[in-house]
Every structure is written in C-alpha cells, then in structure tokens.
Write a structure and sequence with these properties.
Elements lengths: L2 H26 L6 H13 L3 E2 H10 L6 H13 L3 E5 L5 E5 L4
Antiparallel strand pairs: 1-3, 2-3
Helix pairs in contact: 1-2, 2-4, 3-4
C-alpha cells in the first residue's frame, strides 16, 4: 500500500473518531450537535498544527464560512471539554489549540 493511501486511511479513521467523540459528548450533555463545531474540528484536522483562535477564525473566513470569533472561542471550548482538541495556555488570555491524537 502506498504511503499516500495509508495517510488517507489514517485521516479517515481520525475523522471518524472525531465525529464519534463529538456526537457522544453532545448527547451526554444534551447539547445540539452543530455543524459549526464539526467545521472547526475539521479545520483543525486540516491544518494539523497548533493554532490560536484568531488565526483559526481567519482561516475559516478565508474558506467562506460566516462565523463569528465568539463562536470560534465557544466551540473550541466545547471541543476541549469533549476531549477532541487540546488547549495550551500561553498567557491568561491567549492559547493554542490543536486536535488530539486518537486514543
């Protein structure tokens, strides 16, 4: 199997894991499973590095998504609570976010 095919399958498995984790978390908290949360999580998977919320917001806007910075912050918080992404505090008001590796 070619390396590109393996990477594709690894990414597909990771996205399946991500969706499952997010659905399970939302159901257990009786929260709405929103498309915006999934879009933010998929964007984190696509860029595959640590990123600040503002940079993520700009990237989403460049991709044509109409989303507020407040929505990005709110949904990143949900993704961290759900165990889907990690947060690394730089200062009291600044953090880096990245997708968690599958367990």
């Amino acid at each position: 199997m070619k390396k590109n095919q393996l990477n594709y399958f690894e990414k597909a498995n990771h996205l399946d894991w991500l969706i499952h984790q997010l659905q399970t978390y939302c159901l257990s908290r009786r929260m709405k499973y929103s498309e915006r949360r999934l879009i933010i999580a998929f964007k984190l998977a696509e860029i595959n590095r640590k990123v600040e919320a503002e940079e993520l917001w700009i990237l989403l806007k460049k991709d044509g998504y109409t989303i507020s910075i407040a929505s990005v912050y709110l949904n990143l918080s949900v993704l961290v609570d759900a165990g889907v992404c990690i947060s690394e505090r730089l200062t009291q008001r600044q953090a880096l976010y990245a997708l968690r590796a599958t367990a």
